[in-house]
Structures
1.
Amino acid sequence: MSAPHDTVERRGLSPRQRARRSRLIQYAILVLLVVFAAISADWGQIGKVFFEPKFIEAAFRDGLLSALVKTLEYTAGAFVIGLIGGTLLALMRLSSVGPYRWVATAYIEFFRGLPAIVVFIAFSLLPLAFEGMTIPWDPYGVVWLALGIVAAAYMAEVIRAGIQAVPKGQLEAARSLGMPPGLATRKIVLPQAFRIVLPPLTNDLILLVKDSSLVFIIGTSATAYELTGFGRELANTYANLTPLVTAGFCYLLITLPLGIVVRRLESKAARTR
Amino acid sequence: MTVQDSLPTSSPVVQIKNLHKSFGSNHVLRGIDFTVDQGEVVCVIGPSGSGKSTLLRCVNLLEMPQEGQVIVRGEDLTDPDCHLDAARQQIGMVFQQFNLFPHLSVLANCTVAQTTVHKRRASEAEQIARANLSRVGLDDKVTAYPAQLSGGQQQRVAIARALSMDPALMLFDEPTSALDPELVGDVLTVMRKLALDGMTMLVVTHEMAFAREVADRVVFMDGGVIVEQGSPAEVIGNPQQPRTQDFLRRVLNPTHVEPT
């Protein structure tokens, strides 16, 4: 008696062989494309426009580092506002008081649906609309507020999901020990919720780093330039893209490590669960 | 000395009157009346879905009953004017799933409510927590985190956490049902010791041997009502009601197959 698979007639390639062949074809196409790009591109010109050493040097001389610091300051302040605002909104959204829920839902849906750039344009026009109106800590106040208002909407949804992911038994145990709802939320639920949402919250931080580039719409003065505003200004001055590319690499310097942190946190969370 | 302490010892710690609880159209408790006296250990047994856990959760109002009264140490918890958080401080509760706080150490699990609710000083709270942890045999685990402990150890921490609030009454909601069989004994030993120390206890359990040995009174529930209650010898040893007899036959002899 022969096993069934011996009797199956083999026609052409097995599935595994077919998969390997299609993979090889894809690799071949990729190699061809790369070779074509390498031959046809004018590397001298590309180097001169995007990676000209003397303009990289100029960027450092003209204050690239202070622009980097500004980006970090704008992001950090906005993150704090977003975190506090987002936590309040998340708690309101989960409140048993109807009006709290309605206000939070309206806020979140409004600012999540609106392009951030529209919020920034609105903030740039505020002084025109309300004459004599000033926001303190210029330029930080406006930037933090504009970025933070939008960030709060995004973070509220993340934090709400985190709070709901804390098992119901935790709140019950806290209440059974005589803790009032507010105390139980602060001491028991929120610390666990924040642990759960640490990875997605770091993701929001990465988005915020990039959104801080929208600040140039508010029309800050040259001393308040963050990376994008700075790179754009310098690229205009020298009629060369190198300063903008340099500024772009500075973003990666911030966001890539944060991305690694997110992946670490996620795998750690996966292990402890 | 509080008012409650001067009450005659015969006054019940828990008094439940005509308790009704529904979840939607599901009428889980259909008029429960019973009492637990000072120092008494009452075990509630019954098939799953009989409402025994719901009854227990109504005693500290984790579930709000639709009708009836829950009176603990003379205070009506169902009264809208009742200060529920204060009342709950004298009712310790132990859950089937332990519900330890995973972000806090074993010691902090036992002190967090003491320092925030009772406003005890940190050193005093710690001293009380250590005493209770040693009472459940876990003095060497104070710095551990819940995830580092076995289920049996976690449940004993949960008992110590509840005891640290100096409760007048302890509620146990199937405290050994989520445990591996070899860990059940440790938890039951702690509960037995607690009963000997005179703690008033209301225990929902499937551990018939424990109920028979430790309980002063056994309550059998089915279909949201109390079918039968009395001493363990009466209810477990010589049940009068057919439903009780049927339940005990299944529980005490689970591998028995009815002849067809």
Note: The radius of gyration of chain A is 26 Å.
2.
Amino acid sequence: MEQNIALELKNITKTFGKVVANKNVSLKVRKGEILSILGENGSGKTTLMNMVSGIYFPDSGQIFADGKEIVIASPKDAFDHKIGMIHQHFKLVDVFSAAENIVLGLEDEKGFDMPCYIEKIKEITEQYGFELDPYKKIYEMSVSEKQTVEIVKVLFRGADILILDEPTAVLTPQETVKLFKVLRNMREDGKAIIIITHKLHEVLSLSDNVAVLRKGEYIGTVKTAETNEAQLTEMMVGKKISLNIERSEPENVSDRLVVENINCVDREGIKLLDNVSFSARSGEILGIAGIAGSGQRELLEAIAGLQHLDGGSIIYNNPKTGESENLRDKTPLEIRQMGVRLAFVPEDRLGMGLVGNMDIIDNMMLRSYKKGKSVFLQRKKPKSLAEEIIERLEVVTPSAYTPVRRLSGGNVQKILVGREIASSPTVLMAAYPVRGLDINSSYTIYNLLNEQKKKGVAVIFVGEDLDVLVELCDRIMVIGSGRITGIVDGRNTTKEEIGILMTKSADNEQNGGEQ
Amino acid sequence: MITTIIQRAVMQGTPLLFGSTGEILTEKSGHLNLGIPGIMYVGAISGVAGSFLYEQSVAQINPLLAVIIPLICSLVGSTLMGLIYCFLTVSLRANQNVTGLALTTFGIGIGNFFGGSLIKLVDTDIPSIALSKTSNCFKTQLPFADNLGWFGDIFLSYGFLVYVAIIVALISSHILNKTRVGLHLRAVGESPETADAAGINVTKYKYLSTCIGSAIAGLGGLYYVMDYANGVWSNNGFGDRGWLSIALVIFSVWRPSISILGSMLFGFLYVIPTYIPGISVSAKKLFEMLPYVVTIIVLIITSMRDKKENQPPAALGLPYFREER
């Protein structure tokens, strides 16, 4: 056995119910090495590392540290084996200073000696070249400073194996450069570093070895020096699988919704949407592909009137009147009163789409609550609509009076999509409509979308499964870090092409996209 | 007259100080205990019951025992109340507000029930119990306080519980801000998932801080009966002091050290109408509103300033589930 292997996983398998998150994954990382774990969303990267850091326990398989088999049952066990993980969502107390967060939870016989701790923190920051003020409060910090606190926290506890989950997802290019510098310093110091990522250029510029996961399976490990983007992309997305989703030729295509140069900035000043322009056409399905959180949600919410925008316009061409109207910064109600029939199936079904504690009929009324003049509710029409949806979409429910939250995910989605379609929309937006659904329910949804397309509706479909996007959509728009990185024809594109576009945006930024 | 007003203000403020110190400790663990009025009431009646039984059982009371017995009874009574609250809100994750309000109603019910029973035992015409012998022990002052003029009157003329209240508040303040236990406790109240990930036993901290907080609050009830009210228990005599304690927590922006001065200010506002000559009953009632008005103003100011340190613990009132998939 090789001497300097810091951590080795052998045949790790983990399932959640029926879903296999990791299947027979084996990999090793040496001291003084940076290993990237590459994979698409949902390929099981984070689950795998959570097992190493003690959050989940593997169903089967072995973990070795320093050549000895170890059992990691809790985060504390992981600490004891000098394994530290920096999660994507930071675990920090806002009103505490950096130093207080770093020493939180430590048991130390010598007592509570803050000046001594701060001295040690300063030593660590100097050794690896971090910039950190130990007295600064977390709530006054930028995301990158918070990340620094997390890394120092792990080092303070003496970790020799560091796992970073998507460390650059929240950083600006400059901050990324800085982070890579300290990571290289740590490598020089003999630490083993594992980075979970889906950004190819980072993999290529930083790591020594790359392990690729696809849909929970371990595909292989390659030396970074001996590989290239094309090979990694192929390992990541895999060969094309045929799904046989029906796709008709678009008819009577005309621009229904024209989005021009819209921008959206979050509270911390990070651009969520950056100069986005595209058009959605009637009788066509426009697919939106991208890594989760690249701005898909903000884009749809902006069109639906739920997101404030900085600049740009959203022009709607009304097919009835022939007029063009700007929907930007209008409320959903105003949009509806303008005669725009917009249907929105949000990502968060029970949060934004439906009210879980209300029954199916009442949920139907969420769309039509402004109708009617009486002070009393008229339940007749919504009731017949609910019954129609239950029958036509084969919703499995005890009755129309069952609270929606008690139905299964697929049935909830059918009700939501059914309600949105019932308003005979001219634009239909659906965000991850098949997430968590079984195959049959998924096909029901695809058919519904196709049906709407044939009726001349402009359908916008945000999806995560590239196989589906390639077979279902007429055009696919790829979004990366809030920017459109390409619009391709669904009929002649490949998964690889989309995969490369999905990871492209950050490259552009680093080549001088930012001032 | 100024010395008298100050004395009365301090005596009025002491039960509030106990109550708010206890509540601050509880809230720092992320639990809003609205059962404090009930807990203080139970603390009072437990002490009264203990001292009543002791006074009845011996002819000549031992001053030390006369203090220790009610003290222990009170601590046990209020800690038990705290345990009920913990079990419901921490272990069973019941809604904290509902649990707290129920506990207040329950505690006042218990107090009035046992108070009423004791009053029946005494068989007097007046609906109250007088424990003057015990009260005298609680009110014992430092022997040289009388010889020091106004200084002695203002600073040294109180029963020992007043000093206990201040010391407990100072110790709490020190523990919260300067020790590892305090750091962990604050982390639990701010972000239990962070504390959990850092290896802190969240449930243990919640239980301990709530129970200790309840015990401290209960002493406020005991002080009220034994010292302030001269050992006279009458049903519903405690008034709205429990609610004032909770208001005082907000007033002192979750800092026990500020709470010391705050309690005296509240006490002052409470007693001042009695010393204004020729004041009408309705005006007096208006004055009684003042502590609450002040609290609302503080609440407005602290939220406007938006300084994070002056905000309630971030996880206050939220049950903590460790997420398991």
Note: Residues 304 and 332 of chain A are 6 Å apart (CA to CA).
